Amino acid sequence: MKQAALGFRVHSGWAALVAVAVEDGAPCVLAHARPHLVKAFTYQFRQPYHTAAELPRDKASEFISRVRKESRDLAYRAIHEIQADMQKQGFKLSRAALLLASAKQLPALDKILASHALIHTADGELFREAVLHASARCHLATICVKERELLGQAAETFQLRPDALLRRVTELGRPHGSPWSQDEKFAAIIAWLSLASPSKR
User: Fold this and answer.
1) What percent of the chain has pLDDT over 90?
2) What are the start-end ranges of the H helices in the chain?
3) Sign of the C-alpha dihedral computed for residues 116, 131, 9 and 96 taken in this order
4) Can you tell me the distance from the alpha carbon of 176 to that of 1, in angstroms, rounded to the nearest whole number?
């Protein structure tokens, strides 16, 4: 069975995902979607640490845990469904690839909620972690690449200039229609890169 990979560019409360395979040495897009990672797509849940900062500390921790579990479950559902669809098409979805921010490891909850900058960072990290957790639950080998390093790393791997790489990925998305923004392009690049890279579970 042919191998396929999922690439993710995650935002607060949702993600752009693109499924990619390599056929005859060239990448092809199998599917793309923008699944929600919260059930209620509102500021309250899409910015959970901002919401938690307005709550008593015991309630804040409980709220964050609830949003994290919900996000993990929704990410798992999205990945599992596309994994089943790929199998019907003759592809084994075996890898996941995730773009990371440049953030350092986060401190304990009290310190996060005391810093507006850390609150912003923590909101993004919660949803990225949910995608990683769901990928592991679906038995996908994973790679993670910092977004600022993506084009350079991919250009070196595929021996293409960054501008040529972007043009190629832009063309890949044309048959699939919108949305095909930078979110989908970057998700496609990291999925393609994962098929050419060593990975780990």
Assistant:
1) 90
2) 43-46, 48-52, 57-88, 109-113, 116-137, 147-158, 162-173, 182-195
3) positive
4) 23
Class at the top of the CATH hierarchy for domain 2-195: alpha beta
Spell out the residues 6+ positions from residue 126 whose beta carbon is closer than 8 angstroms to its own. 48, 49, 64, 67, 68, 71
Given this model, what pLDDT does residue 25 score?
A: 87
Mean pLDDT (10-residue bins), the chain, 201 residues: 96 97 93 97 97 95 97 98 95 96 86 95 96 97 96 96 95 91 97 81 41
Residue for token digits 């395979």?
Answer: 21
Domain locations in the chain as residue ranges? 2-195
DSSP 3-state assignment of 192?
helix
The closest alpha carbon to 156, from 200, 189, 185, belongs to 189
